[in-house]
Write a structure and sequence with these properties.
The protein is α+β, with helices and mostly antiparallel strands and about 140 residues long. It has helices at about 20-35, 55-65, 100-110, 120-130, and strands at about 5-10, 40-45, 45-55, 70-80, 95. It binds flavin-adenine dinucleotide. Pfam families: BLUF.
């Protein structure tokens, strides 16, 4: 089995309510559990930034489904790597939104507004890894 990590960002196609985000996370967590995919999702300022980790085929198929989802658009892959072991193994799908820690970390990355388009692949991954420790319960 080849283990991969895919990181992408996208823009919400409409404004996202708490219940929209809950729906996405509920589906993600139950589906990812079945296909042994884990990861981390951030949402703020209409941008999604997500890492998906798991078996190569499972991640590829899932990404195609996600990219096709009308709730967001312009999904753009930032990085795609083979990994030895998953970084986000504890979470079927972790989640962080615009908390105080979120903005503190953004400022450390030189941003005042969340805009993953401006992040390098190293910045995007380390942002997701750092935010995994400061998740938002919704
Ligand atoms: P269904 O739920 O029947 O979906 C059928 C179609 O309708 C799909 O194209 C789906 O995208 C779309 N759809 C579903 N709900 C809505 C809605 N409320 N409004 C508009 N269209 C809708 N799924 C995962 O399994 N794992 C993830 O990690 C994951 N991450 C996601 C991250 C983001 C940013 C978004 C927007 C979605 C994510 N999803 C994730 C959901 C994913 O896109 C699919 O909805 C999910 O895989 C189920 O699709 P389905 O075709 O099996 O079934």
């Amino acid at each position: 089995m080849k283990l991969v990590r895919l990181v992408y960002f996208s823009q919400a196609s409409r404004s996202m309510s708490l219940s929209d985000l809950r729906d996405i996370l509920e589906t993600a967590r139950s589906n990812n559990d079945e296909i042994a995919v884990c990861g981390m999702l951030c949402f703020e300022n209409q941008f999604f930034l997500q890492a998906l980790e798991g078996d190569r085929e499972a991640v590829n198929e899932l990404y195609l489904d996600i990219a096709d989802d009308p709730r967001h658009e312009e999904a753009t892959i930032i990085s795609y790597d083979e990994v030895e072991s998953p970084t986000f193994a504890k979470w079927q799908m972790g989640y962080a939104g615009g908390s105080e820690s979120f903005y503190e970390l953004l400022r450390k990355n030189g941003q005042t507004e969340f805009d993953p388009e401006q992040m390098s692949q190293t910045q995007a991954l380390s942002f997701l890894m750092d935010m995994a420790a400061f998740q938002t319960d919704i």
